[in-house]
Design goal:
The protein is an alpha/beta fold. The protein has a domain of 209 residues: 3-Layer(aba) Sandwich (Rossmann fold), CATH 3.40.50.720. It is built from twelve helices and twelve strands. The strands form three sheets. Strands 3-2-1-4-5-6-10 form a seven-stranded parallel β-sheet, with helices on both faces. Helix 1 crosses helix 8, helix 2 crosses helix 3 and helix 3 packs parallel to helix 4. The protein is globular. The structure holds NADP nicotinamide-adenine-dinucleotide phosphate. NADP nicotinamide-adenine-dinucleotide phosphate binds next to helix 1, strand 2, helix 3 and strand 7.
């Protein structure tokens, strides 16, 4: 088996690790990486990888990419953007990738990185979440709603393909700092009314303080997501959905310590109030919607990835956090 793997989004926080892992896997002969902005594979030490300039909104570019591959890995996505930009790229662009892959003769396998957010932030979510829990999304958070919509789209568009859906929790590590740069509290702070901001510790002058509603989080290192993507790309286990997270969990207090802040316990009801306000207020930028992500614990069971895909995370959540903040 000498696979040609097409990757959309090869320069992202996950994409960079994925290409590195594909480069290192002897079952992979060639990697075709498509992004809008140019990159030089040789400058990154990549020898099997070729750059393809293209936008997933351009069906012709997508057809040309996937038509030359045995396996398609779809990573390109807008995580932090406006509702409109994210809708176009994430829904229209993803539809292009799914439909083009299904229509092309050569590829037999599609790997798509969904997210824990696809389950939606619901009070009645089981703990832990297994892959059998329906992906309902949360309509008040664009990213969650789009992740759930993309999974429904997969079911509609990819008949005949072996489809692997990976659902990572928040990804961290030296090459993945989105959590650090975009803590939900930071994004939501300007849109929460002043008295509530004070109660939540969101006043810039009072930093570094991070409110801790007691919700626990999972993290996964980008290299561990990459090893799952490679296992799926090589067909190491049956097609299907796989949750991805490290073994341990972190608290807001752990996070605060890692970023040199300190955590102040706040009642979890306050997060619910802030979340309801962000949902109710008109003209709230999409980024503020990330506050919904912390209103309920979202702990996933990762047994299926271990048993069926042979996946073992090499890094703990604490390591992922520490390496993210000490880079
Ligand atoms: N990071 C996390 O914590 C996390 C957690 C769970 C799931 N995920 C999922 O994992 C996937 C990859 O995430 P990431 O963190 O690597 O994202 P990222 O760092 O934002 O990278 C996005 C990549 O997609 C490319 N891209 C964006 N729009 C494009 C377009 N219209 N056409 C072609 N390429 C485009 C970007 O390159 P150009 O801008 O140059 O085009 C870049 O290579 C996403 O589906 C994300 O939702 C991420």
């Amino acid at each position: 088996m000498a696979l040609t793997v097409a990757v959309t989004g090869p320069t992202g926080e996950i994409g960079t690790s994925v290409v590195r892992a594909l480069e290192a896997d002897e079952r992979v002969a060639r990697v075709l990486g498509m992004a809008r902005r140019p990159f030089d594979p040789a400058a990154r030490g990549w020898r099997k990888t070729e750059y393809r300039q293209g936008d997933i909104l351009d069906r012709g570019a997508v057809d040309a990419l996937v038509g030359a591959a045995d396996v398609v890995v779809h990573l390109a996505y807008v995580i932090l953007g406006t509702r409109e930009e994210s809708r176009r790229v994430n829904l229209d662009g993803t539809r292009n990738v799914f439909e083009a892959t299904a229509a092309a003769e050569r590829p037999g396998r599609l790997v798509y990185t969904s997210s824990v957010a696809a389950y939606g932030y619901h009070a009645d979510n089981p703990a832990p979440l297994t892959e059998d829990v329906p992906v309902r999304g949360s309509s008040e958070h664009y990213y969650s709603a789009q992740k759930a919509a993309c999974e429904r789209l997969l079911a509609e568009t990819t008949e005949g393909l072996d489809v692997y859906v990976l659902r990572p929790c928040i990804v961290a590590g030296p090459d993945a700092t989105v959590l650090l740069r975009n803590l939900p509290w930071e994004q939501a702070a300007p849109y929460v009314p002043e008295p509530l901001r004070r109660a939540l510790g969101l006043v810039p002058g009072l930093r570094p303080v991070i409110p801790d509603p007691g919700v626990r989080f999972q993290l996964v290192h980008h290299d561990d997501v990459a090893s799952a993507v490679v296992a799926a790309a090589a067909g190491d286990g049956p097609p299907g959905a796989y949750n991805l997270a490290a073994d341990d969990e972190i608290t807001m207090a752990d996070f605060a310590r890692a970023v040199g802040a300190y955590a102040v316990p706040v009642p979890s009801e306050l997060v619910g109030v802030a979340s309801a306000l962000v949902d109710a207020l008109p003209l709230v930028p999409a980024k503020a919607e990330w506050i919904h992500a912390v209103r309920h614990p979202m702990i996933m069971d990762t047994g299926r990835a271990r048993r069926a895909l042979g996946w073992t995370p090499r890094h703990t959540a604490h390591e992922a956090l520490t390496t993210m903040t000490t880079r």
